[in-house]
């Protein structure tokens, strides 16, 4: 039953009703999550799995997708380096003593001029202290405005990409 202490206050549902609604919502969300997992990834029938098993299967599937994404990012970076003429016979996740085999020594700095825009690509090692703000400061001192900056970590390498526009000529 719903109770009210005063005629002015709205009626609040009882605790058991709130809990029942919460459980129903959770059950619906879990079934939606389970429906997103492809059938080939599930080891047994969905009807035979408990809710905890379905959540475990979903977590396993998400981990597998993350590993696939990481592998695809690595392949993409290797393809980019290969298209730019760099040797990618070694993995990008190689250690510092293998950097010479990759065809470059860290850090790598590349500047591409796009008319009134600039693209700066920096590749640095995780273990090397790299001050990105210094590069941004230099660009701004020279009359460029950084409009976006992003980075990706792949193995022991950090890939920074800066996009800047020329604000005024010196």
From TrEMBL:
Name of the protein: BHLH domain-containing protein
InterPro entries, A to Z: bHLH_dom, HLH_DNA-bd_sf, MASH1/Ascl1a-like
Main subcellular location: nucleus
SMART domains documented for this protein: HLH
Keywords, in A-Z order: Coiled coil, Nucleus, Transcription, Transcription regulation
Entry's Gene Ontology cellular component terms: nucleus
Lineage: Eukaryota, Viridiplantae, Streptophyta, Embryophyta, Tracheophyta
Coiled-coil region(s): 48-82
Positions of the UniProt region annotated as Disordered: 1-20
Domain BHLH: 10-65
Pfam families: HLH
